[in-house]
Amino acid sequence: MGSDELIEELEFINRNSHIDFLIFNKFDKMPVLAIEVDGYFFHNSEKQKCRDQKKDNILKKCNIPLLRFKTNECNEIDRITKKLDEIIKQSSK
């Protein structure tokens, strides 16, 4: 990664971005899962797609799994439960 990319990502984190939900391990206080809720119409713009991709890349570099939900989808509880079960199984190895 170049220093320009790192600077751009740090600026993005500090000024332009947030995570809708961030779930932490209560023992070590480290994030274990990020959840984003994407508005169906709003997240179809190219600008927002670019921002979402940047956020996805940053979370991936930090080894924080991400779930994205569209506001017109369903089964959110099942997807979150399944992902948390996977994370728990991985951490117990």
How would you concisely characterize the structure shown here?
With 93 residues, this protein is of the alpha+beta class.
Tags for this model:
single chain, 93 residues, alpha+beta, 3-stranded mixed beta sheet, flat
Structure annotation, total helices: 3
Query: What is the succession of H and E elements?
Result: HEEHEH
How many β-strand runs?
Answer: 3
The helix content, as a percent range, equals 40-55%
| Low-pLDDT windows of residues | none
Estimate what percentage of residues fall within beta strands: 15-25%
First-to-last CA distance: 31 Å
- SSE-based structural type: alpha+beta
User: What Rg do the Cα atoms give?
Assistant: 15 Å
Strand order of the largest sheet: 1-2-3
Broad shape: flat
Mean pLDDT: 88
* Main pleated-sheet profile: 3 strands, mixed
Outline the structure in words:
It is a single chain. With 93 residues, the protein is an alpha+beta fold. The protein has a domain at 27-91. It contains three helices and three strands. A hairpin with a 6-residue loop joins strand 1 (21-24) and strand 2 (31-38). The longest helix has 16 residues, at 46-61. The termini are far apart.
Produce the secondary structure layout:
Elements: H1 3-16, E1 21-24, E2 31-38, H2 46-61, E3 66-70, H3 76-91
Parallel strand pairs: 2-3
Antiparallel strand pairs: 1-2
